[in-house]
Amino acid sequence: MLRISNTVIGILNAMFLLLGLASIGASIYFHLHGGTMCQKVLQNPLLFAGLFFVVVSLLGLAGSCCRLNSLLYTYLVLIFLLILGLIAFTVFALFVTNKGIGQAVSGRGYKEYKVGDFSHWLQHYVVNGKNWEPIKSCLIDAQVCKSLSGDVHQTKTDFYKKNLSPIQSGCCKPPSYCGYEFKNATYWVVPKSGPKEPDSDCMTWSNKQNKLCYDCKSCKGGMLANIRKEWRSLAILNCCILVLLTLVYCVGCCATKNNRFSTYNYNKYRGGA
Question: What global pTM score does this model have?
């Protein structure tokens, strides 16, 4: 294990280096070619993540190939801090997503969501006024509602049976309690008597395809439900990454021992000579 540890560290960090360069390249591409608002949101995270991977992988490569323990120790400290950060984020993600279950609607194949059903942190930091605008732009750019309006022959009964995603349920139609009349998936008519409930979402709804219910509280609730699902899946992925990083850390420790052993033998040989 000690003998091959430097080789393993070198191969792993070569892969991390390529990953970091690809991340930086994607960030530069979005910067030079403009891109959508959604892509611009990813620009800085991709750049910082890429720079981190490049720096860490270069430390690992230099330390393993040149047998420099000073660099390997720095590399191991950064890996250890990354492990601690992933553990903290995983615990935090599970904590802030422990609330938020959709409400079943009678006679519907989908659920509807309210912002108040989710943790205060998600409400305050994710769907506040400042952060909601870029999120809304991403939803519009992604055309999340376009697939619903494609079937012009769809009946009301067929639509009500659909298993809509949380975002489609909250952003692409008015809430069920408004009592709007179905014309097609993204076109609803206000009854002559007005909405059944005097709720702000009922007034916010628009049949314009670039507005719909993107400013509704139900849309924000749908986005939080989607974030809850994605973050819980991410927590599982983080556990797998933690196992991998722990193995890398252990191999790195073996590489430092291998370097010390090689240096000791070299010095012993020179002393004997």
Answer: 0.79
